[in-house]
Amino acid sequence: MAKAKLSVTLDPTKVAQARELLEVATLSQLIDIALDRLIVEELERRHTAGYIARHSDPEELAWAEIERDPTEIADDVDWARLYGVAEPR
């Protein structure tokens, strides 16, 4: 893919935090990752909005509005242990 050199003005604090979180060495890598994620997120948002607009059957939408008690979920899998996530103290 062709690349072009561009000039941007950015908040250096945000850049430093984002580079640390993503563990990237260059600003170019950071912006490339950020743009990839933004594109995917926006396409997913538009897809969802389109689906909701076309599937507005009142009965179907009513199911989405039902609030469920999360304690009713029967799940005996220790997901934190399975994925190596430390429990909050």
List the helices and strands and how they pair.
Elements: H1 12-22, H2 27-54, H3 58-65, H4 79-82
Plain-language structure description:
By secondary structure, this protein is an all-alpha fold. It has a domain at 12-66. Helix content is 57%, strand content 0%. It contains four helices and no strands. It has helices at 12-22, 27-54, 58-65, 79-82. The longest helix has 28 residues, at 27-54. The protein starts with 11 loop residues before the first helix and ends in a 7-residue tail after the last helix. The model has no long low-confidence stretch (mean pLDDT 84).
- What share of residues are in beta strands? under 5%
Q: Give me the secondary-structure category.
A: mainly alpha
**Succession of helices and strands:** HHHH
Compute the average pLDDT.
84
Tell me how many strands there are: 0
The share of residues in helices is 55-70%
Radius of gyration, Cα only, in angstroms?
21 Å
Primary descriptors:
89 residues, mainly alpha, 4 helices, 57% helix, flat
Short structural summary:
57% of the residues lie in helices and 0% in strands. It has 89 residues and is mainly alpha-helical.
